[in-house]
Amino acid sequence: MSTTKNCLAAVLAAGLGLGTLTACGDSGDSGGDSENVTLVTHSSFAVSKDVLREFERTSGYKVRVLKDGDAGRAVNKALLTKDNPQGDVFFGVDNTLLSRALDGGLFQPYKSPALSSLDADTRLDPKHRVTPVDTGDICVNYDKKFFSERKLEPPKSFADLAKPAYKDLLVTENAGSSSPGLGFLLASAAEYGDQGWQGYWKKLKANGIKVVDGWDQAYNEEFSGSAGGRKAGGERPLVVSYASSPPAEVVFADPRPKTAPTGVATRTCFRQIEFAGLLAGARNTEGGKALVDFFASKAFQEDMPLNMFVNPVRAGAKVPAVFTEHGTAVRDPHTMAPGKIAEKRDDWVKSWTSLVLK
Amino acid sequence: MTSTDVTSTDVTRTGATAPPRVPRRRQRRRSAARLGLMAVPAVFFALFFAYPVAAIVGRGLRDGGHWQFGRLTEVLGDAGIRQVLWFTTWQALASTALTLLIALPGAYVLARLDFPGKSLLRALVTVPFVLPTVVAGTAFLALLGRGGLLDDLWGVRLDTTVWAILLAHVFFNYAVVVRTVGGLWSQLDPRQEEAARMLGASRAAAWRTVTLPALGPAVAAAALMVFLFTFTSFGVVTILGGPAYATLEVEIYRQTADVFDLPTAAVLTLVQLTAVALILAVHAWTVRRRESTLRLLAPESTARAPRGAGQWALLAGVLLSVLLLLLLPLAVLVQRSFDTAAGYGLGYYRALTSADSNVFLVPPIDAVGNSLTYALAATGIALVIGTLAAAALTRPGRAGRLVRGFDALLMLPLGVSAVTVGFGFLISLDEPPLDLRASWILVPLAQALVGVPFVVRTMLPVLRALDTRLREAAAVLGASPLRVWREVDLPLVRRALLVAAGFAFAVSLGEFGATVFIARPDNPTLPVAVARLLGRAGELNYGQAMALSVILMAVCTLSLLLLERLRPRTGGAAGGPAAPTGEM
């Protein structure tokens, strides 16, 4: 009788062995192939198929895209795996996390020939370990209908947000886990100074600011102006989102409305710059370089706005009409040097957490 | 042989009677065979569980080749972390109590009352288990959040309160209690209670002195499982609790993925691992103390049509609670998936088949195929590993400490943070010959880790109940070992294998925490695709997320309905494994 069970075991073990073998066999074709170039990025990365195909046709490389969670998490994951990276190029580290990536040794230097045609304000690494790809503005968005119905002027500035007229209207994201949340905190620090921002946030808290974990919840569930939020019964007419969210509301609606249902409080903005870089342990460095050049190319830069709702950094790259029609150009966004962000970020997030959340 | 998972499992092992004396040589051969059977699952767990988890903990706690255990006291001394520990514990206790309170009447009704649509109801209450927490969380938000049903009716909002978390925990764990306790309840001989009443005991006294002690162990087992699942709760807490609430699991995730404070994450992982090991040890202890003298009957013979106002009221109450807590959130979800800008229709479902979406490089509907493929592979792996483990655990011979430790080890993946496992896979399985990071098999492997405990729990009682004399008789009559296996063992365990496969499949299908880290972007699974769609603005993405969730729900429901058909005649035997988790 014990032989019976042993036999069963052998059959099962053989089955498992087979499974493991196929598993091993399967992994063989993934790395090291110089015809493949692998992009590691966050979940918001998007590119039109034909634009990507054109790159593949002219460069001869096949592009594999590994998307991983939201921006901060993708960076952290890349840092965790940096000794044996999952790909050749990383796209999507922004100015708020740039120093963490650079100090962690995530990238190797590569000076793209296209660099000179990119906006000088966005070239933040003198060692050329990263190349700027796009900019976006993190701003408070408002629900047009809410404010017009109440004949209330939508807020424009940080100071407005703390006024009693806007009590219990704003929802923002956790600065510890969400990049718009962190951007909004940094913008307030840029406005009120290293010491002053805490006093401002006390006022915001007293004025009934609501904090949720991520942009998804804030924008698609709590905000009353977005399609998702309207459906979910969101009742906060102010949300921390992007300057490009209003055009997104138009593009993704079916049928498209004539005007965007939301607007942007232009003096609450924080300029976010996203970079791409060649990963330190890249297997296919040549392919990786070609991919970085592609991100800086006119074709990609012009394709980007409608895919990722960000602004190009390349001089002369055209932005689609729907984007300019429904979007708001932010003239003077808040900024902060990556070095300063690196120095203060963790402390600020910690004191923000105990100040606002607890 | 009639048995319930929770009762027979462990009764047989410790056994009321001492095992027959066997010659020492034979005993040695037996333990060798047991070790042989244990080898494959042990290697599997070492490679795909212990090693990755150790790697990620080591990354956090080793500095310059030395373990930095000083971090332990440092982290545990932090007021914020202590608050997390306290919240984790008390919400788990409260969730468990609330689940028992609401689900025990359900267990009774499903066990003892006979009414039309009973098997449908049984299947329905099991659906929430296997739903990804993203979906359930969003559905609950729509019910309890702003603009939700409660808000519309009475202006009550429960989101970002602990009540939302507790109710969602009841939603997920209702079936754990119904299956574990109800399975046994349906087989208790009602005549014992009747006899007590005949002898003059009041109804309450009879229940307290006869039924309750018999049910006690099953209730304890269910309570411990619910406690385990809610103690390690992740998705529910992040979605419904908001940023102010964090369980250990949530904090591990935040420390790793957001703050990138690996030492703190490593300390918390160790704390959670210890806590889970303790819970499992208590579970094993209560199981070992179970009485073996229960008189069990076929479940069909104990269920009766409701009689009297009390039973009708109970039935109505249970139906109402199932309706409100379990079905309503799902109904809201379904309603939203059809509620397009152009009125009710299939618009969002049609959009799923288009590759033009900016969220995916492939049509989202492809996720259905991916999910099914991955879940099938995971089921295969879990069945092989789980069955071998169960076979090892049922080998004749004394069950030593080694075997009991092995049994507990198999359950451990249920309680270890999915994010730890996911990150661990990434940093440990990255070198040949085990460079699996880019391989599709990584996802099924992670899913199988969660599936194995269910396979083991399902197979153990059935394997233990196999009458060895049948096999011996066949062998004596000249059947080859293979033929004995094919004609004796297989027919006997086939049903249990199918049920185990069904559970492993459903759990794999819903796995989210680890999959989200390792699934390939061009091959998303259903839960991953839903989360990704939810992360994008715009009505079309939101609607597609709802539609895809409904599809996932439908696939899960179908596989569970199939399970109900396959429920072994012995009722609880396979119907009540430790219970899958909606989490992890």
TrEMBL record, chain A:
PANTHER family: ABC TRANSPORTER SUBSTRATE-BINDING PROTEIN, THIAMINE-BINDING PERIPLASMIC PROTEIN-RELATED. Residues 1-25 form the signal peptide. SUPFAM superfamilies: Periplasmic binding protein-like II. Keywords: Signal. This is Thiamine ABC transporter substrate-binding protein. NCBIfam families: sfuA. It comes from Streptomyces physcomitrii. The keyword Transit peptide does not apply. The keyword Signal applies.
